[in-house]
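Let us work through a complete example step by step.
Step 1: write down the sequence.
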Amino acid sequence: MAEPLLKVENLQAWYGESHILHGVGIEVREGEVVTLLGRNGAGKTTTLRSIMGLVGKRSGSVRFEGQELVGARSDRIARAGIALCPEERGIFASLDVTENLLLPPVVRPGGMDLDSIYTLFPNLKERARSPGTKLSGGEQQMLAIARILRTGARLLMLDEPTEGLAPVIVQQIGRTIREIKARGFTVLLVEQNFRFAQTVADRHYVMEHGQVVDAVSNEELSGSLERLHEYLGV
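Step 2: predict the structure and record it as tokens.
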């Protein structure tokens, strides 16, 4: 079997003196959607930030396309082809939708052009000249995802993309993730709502206390609900 696109082994991470991740290990294969499930404080967001090199200190191994990235600066990690869409979205208030889309640099070939992005996100096309923060929460989330599709990144890491959104918008985000996958992108998704995760993902890792405590394929999910209820408290 081919080497995973992303392979994380024994990942440790610290914020100052606080030891947050304790030996995280995950794999993401090319073309997959993989979720990190867990309660608040389980270490899911820190895992994404650690992969991206955005924590105070980290150790272990993060291999992307066979290349070791622990020790690399975050800008080099981005240029290697990994993009992070944070939970706070990072939309620039002083820029309109098109300007927000054009802001990140293209780091490698294979990204989507503006026309393709506007076909995928017709709401954004209608709001192209609107200031970024005048958009609804759902439109801001679409803009945050769309912005990294231009860059040519092969691995998109999405942190809680459905948080605080109305159910109809959550469904739209789900369609977007499935469409992104169909276009050949690979997605690592942090999510608390495993019912949503079930509609988009191939596999799931469950985190507790900064560690991966379980791994479940989507086919096994319905038979693992009792275990997941215990982990997630739902």
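Step 3: interpret the result. The longest helix spans residues 167-182.
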